[in-house]
């Protein structure tokens, strides 16, 4: 394998480069923007399966330097009624999920990739690519091009690589929700540090975490059945967001209003999307990973973790398969069913946040019944997502999906 061209310098691209490096394969990361992503984005929760996949690349300490542990979810209705407490999973050594600022995680992974010898080039926006008999040629908007043995599209929701692989590929699907949030200071909340408090409000979904330093990290998902344009979203000022959110939460018996009032700067809002299924993940010497292949609604809580898993699984097959084509086929077989099930779960979770009057009444009734049933059974409804382990040291067998039961690769 000659060098791999990785399109996209975010979390997925950096982890892919690190995984390939460990597999003995050189790569260069090409980022469209002319600078890094410091200060960009909000925050995310890394599920334990994502942390476990990072561990296979010896990235434990890199991630532990960011954010705080998030062991559980506490679920409430807008009335203040507590529905349930749910584990977010625990690894054998006690590791739990971790909530981190996206920019901090990106910076830590990028710096580690560079420290391990990965090349990074900025200002390289992909505009075209073609497979050749020996590899692939990528063309960039600045008029330059690069050649390699494989092109990996880690270029996110609006992936150019996906469109090059399949011009008929579907567009992302708007899920009917907006996303905004912020970091509050100087407000007192009755919550355990680190726990994800999710509130199915009367008019809007709200989630907040009490960070160890006393700050409150939060996000809200206003329901918008019609997709706003980027211009419409850009026209909503932070103070207008504040006023709209206070109106949405003023009837709820939760700390949402106090938290919003104590937030100096509210994030600019954005639409949420997913992909039910992307028919083609690879073509010749090009392949997509992460959100480019299977974007899930943020409600899944698995977007970053799925991308990290993809990177590790792909690197193992490229390390061990007899050919690049065998590796890409095996990678897709090993990943498609799992990630599409998680996308479907995220879609269902998003639908519980919709807030028409009739839908809300029915939702609250169903949620109470579901969580009462799960409490009686003692079931962990999220275990199928987080109980997933990739054995880096085991040979990757391109002739099978390598699944033992449904959760080991």
What report would you give on this structure?
The protein has helices spanning 11-22, 48-55, 60-64, 102-115, 160-165, 230-234, 238-249, 256-261, 291-294, 303-320, 324-351, 357-377, 383-386, and strands spanning 4-7, 27-30, 43-46, 68-69, 72-77, 82-87, 98-101, 119-121, 126-131, 136-140, 145-148, 150-153, 173-184, 196-200, 205-210, 216-221, 270-274, 282-283, 286-288. The chain is an alpha/beta fold. It has two domains: 4-41 and 102-172 and 276-355 and 381-386, 3-Layer(bba) Sandwich (FAD/NAD(P)-binding domain); 173-273, 2-Layer Sandwich (D-Amino Acid Oxidase, Chain A, domain 2), CATH 3.30.9. Helix 1 packs parallel to helix 10 (303-320) and helix 2 (48-55) runs parallel beside helix 10. The longest helix is centred in the last third of the chain and has 28 residues, at 324-351. The protein is globular, with a radius of gyration of 21 Å. The model is unreliable at 399-406 (pLDDT under 50).
Stated plainly, the CATH topology of the largest domain is called FAD/NAD(P)-binding domain
Shape: globular
Radius of gyration from the alpha-carbon trace, in angstroms? 21 Å
Termini separation: 23 Å
Give a quick account of the main beta sheet: strands, pairing sense, barrel closure. Answer: 7 strands, mixed
Q: What is the strand content?
A: 15-25%
* Whole-number total of structural domains: 2
- Under the CATH scheme, the architecture of the largest domain is 3-Layer(bba) Sandwich
């Amino acid at each position: 394998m000659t060098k791999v061209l990785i399109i996209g310098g975010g979390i997925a691209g950096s982890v892919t480069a690190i995984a390939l490096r460990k597999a003995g394969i050189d790569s260069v990361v090409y980022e469209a923007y002319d600078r890094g992503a410091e200060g960009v984005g909000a925050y995310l929760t890394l599920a334990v399966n994502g942390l476990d996949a990072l561990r296979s690349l010896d990235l434990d300490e890199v991630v532990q330097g960011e954010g705080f542990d998030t062991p559980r979810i506490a679920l409430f209705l807008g009335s203040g009624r507590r529905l349930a407490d749910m584990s977010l999973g625990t690894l054998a050594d006690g590791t739990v999920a971790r909530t981190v600022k996206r920019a901090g995680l990106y910076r830590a992974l990028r710096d580690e990739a560079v420290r391990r010898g990965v090349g990074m080039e900025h200002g390289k926006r992909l505009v075209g690519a073609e497979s050749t008999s020996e590899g692939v040629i990528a063309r960039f908007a600045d008029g330059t091009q690069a050649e390699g043995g494989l092109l990996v599209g880690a270029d996110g929701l609006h992936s150019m690589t996906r469109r090059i692989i399949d011009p008929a590929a579907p567009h992302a699907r708007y899920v009917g929700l907006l996303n905004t949030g912020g970091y509050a200071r100087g407000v007192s909340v009755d919550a355990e540090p680190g726990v994800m408090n999710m509130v199915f409000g009367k008019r809007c979904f709200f989630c907040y975490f009490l960070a160890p330093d006393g700050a409150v990290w939060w996000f809200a998902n206003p329901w918008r059945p019609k997709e706003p344009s980027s211009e419409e979203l850009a026209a909503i000022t932070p103070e207008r967001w504040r006023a709209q959110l206070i109106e949405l939460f003023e009837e709820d018996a939760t700390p949402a209003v106090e938290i919003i009032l104590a937030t100096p700067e509210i994030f600019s809002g954005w639409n949420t999307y997913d992909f039910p299924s992307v028919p083609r993940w690879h073509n010749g010497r090009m392949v997509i990973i992460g959100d480019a292949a299977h974007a899930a609604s943020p409600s899944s809580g698995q977007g970053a973790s799925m991308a990290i898993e993809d990177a590790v699984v792909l690197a193992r097959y490229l390390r061990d398969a007899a050919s690049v084509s065998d590796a890409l086929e095996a990678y897709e077989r090993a990943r498609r069913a799992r990630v599409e099930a998680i996308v479907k779960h995220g879609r269902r979770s998003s639908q519980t946040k919709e807030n028409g009057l009739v839908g809300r009444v029915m939702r609250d009734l169903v949620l109470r019944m579901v969580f009462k049933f799960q409490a009686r059974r003692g079931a962990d409804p999220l275990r199928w997502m987080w109980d997933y382990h990739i054995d880096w040291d085991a040979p990757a067998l391109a002739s099978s999906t390598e699944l033992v039961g449904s959760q080991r690769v």
